[in-house]
Amino acid sequence: MTIQMDKDLRYIFDVLPSFGTRYSNLVMAYCCLFGVTPFQLKAKKLRLIMEEMKRLFDAQAFSYQKKLYPISHDGIAEALDIMVKRNWSKHLSNHNYLKLVMIDISEREGKASSKTAEKDLRKKEDNLKSGSGRSEDDTLSKGLSQEQIDNNLQRVSSIIMTLTEGKQSEAQSASGIIPGAERRGIKSIGGDK
């Protein structure tokens, strides 16, 4: 039992810094709401709670009643802060109340991100309508050097020149003019009139 408790305590103290200084105090305070601390005989329960919190922070999402809710680290911290500051008459037995608090925060974050995405989309539409074309961050040439972009532009311009020369020669042959005929001294296809 002592060996297992030592492993649990070692895990707890190894994983606590992974939350960072910003969130580790909140995670530890939340774990204490379950009535466990690292120096009691309930180190296994504390380890399990810490594992669940680590999975939550790593995934930045949680499920509740078969629905997945995305949430940011700041949203998780806000929910933990609400939980810690509330006066509890009994120790917590599961994470359900935390999940209920996080659902509201997740939905709020989702609305804010959709509003931001809509504003960005409207800005791009306005740029396209005004004729300014693509914005700097919306180019197809992401990851290309300036030299590669210049080479691509030269290739495209030479292709366009070749196509336009081909169209001109087709138009001249359709009208009876032989391309380069003036240079060779030929006046027209039908001979002299």
Describe this structure in words.
With 193 residues, this protein is mostly helical. It folds into 2 domains: 2-116, no CATH class; 145-175. It contains 7 helices and 2 strands, in the order αααββαααα. It has a two-stranded antiparallel ribbon with strand order 1-2. A hairpin with a 2-residue loop joins strand 1 and strand 2. Helix 4 (73-85) packs antiparallel against helix 5 (96-129). It is elongated and about 95 Å long.
**Contiguous helical run count:** 7
What profile does the largest beta sheet have? 2 strands, antiparallel
Shape: elongated
State the domain count: 2
In total, the number of strands is 2
Rg calc:
34 Å
Strand content: under 5%
Mean of the pLDDT scores?
78
H-E order: HHHEEHHHH
- Terminal Cα span: 116 Å
Low-pLDDT ranges: none
Structural class per helix/strand content? mainly alpha
Strand order of the largest sheet: 1-2
- Share of residues in helices: 55-70%
Keywords, separated by commas or semicolons:
64% helix; 2 strands; mainly alpha; 4% strand; 193 residues
SSE blueprint:
Blueprint: H1 2-15, H2 20-32, H3 43-59, E1 61-64, E2 67-70, H4 73-85, H5 96-129, H6 146-174, H7 181-184
Antiparallel strand pairs: 1-2
Helix pairs in contact: 1-3, 2-3, 2-4, 4-5
